[in-house]
Design goal:
Protein name: Dihydropyrimidinase-related protein 5
Number of domains: 1
Mean pLDDT: 79
Largest sheet: 6 strands, parallel
GO molecular function: hydrolase activity, acting on carbon-nitrogen (but not peptide) bonds, in cyclic amides
Family: Belongs to the metallo-dependent hydrolases superfamily. Hydantoinase/dihydropyrimidinase family.
Distance between the termini: 26 Å
Organism: Dissostichus eleginoides
Order of helices and strands: EEHEHEHEHEHEHHHE
InterPro entries: Metal_Hydrolase (IPR032466), Metallo-dep_Hydrolases_sf (IPR050378)
CATH architecture: Alpha-Beta Barrel
Helix content: 40-55%
Strand content: 15-25%
CATH class: Alpha Beta
Low-confidence stretches: 24-36, 44-54
Radius of gyration: 20 Å
Number of helices: 8
Shape: globular
Structural class: alpha/beta
Amino acid sequence: MMMRQQFIRKDYGSLSPAQTLSVDSLFSLLINLSCFSSSASTCLPPCFLPPPPPPPQAALMGGTTMVMALALPEQHCSLVDAYENCRALADAKACCDYALHVGVTWWGPKVRNEMETLVREHGVNSFQMYMAYKDSMMLRDSELYQSLQTCKDIGAIARVHAENGELVAEGAKEALELGINGPEGIEISRPEELESEATHRAITIANRATARSTW
């Protein structure tokens, strides 16, 4: 593979393009071991699930790996409960240090208060918001704005999943109507421009809320 900076640009197989550095394949393992994993899709960091994958093992061996999993409450459920449930499941099985950030899947005064509670009393400093997943986790623009303002007020970092949720939902319907229900439907239902538009919109909203955000 040819890499520029941290990105894989092309898989050349057995070829060795000019002006590139050839390294033993072990190097790719070292790259994978030195990652910062912050987007686990369950409330359990990967090292809690048997068999443990290389990143947590690298952490235990003194590597730079950081395991940070997502506590994702269901819509209209308590953020604090989701956090505590994840801690209860994880603490007894943890094989290395880990952190949790928490998903904001709906909005209201209770959510704002619980975000502050998580920061002040539980040490959470990162929250995940979604502009996609309509009728599930998607926040409206006004709700995203208020959640980003809250992050600013309580000193937390906001992470935003930026896609145009309305158009993604429409694209999914169109793909299903065409009989497309496999992985190839991803590109049809959520093309790059839907992410680009939502990213620009998220940045605009964040600028208005003066929040520290990452995408």
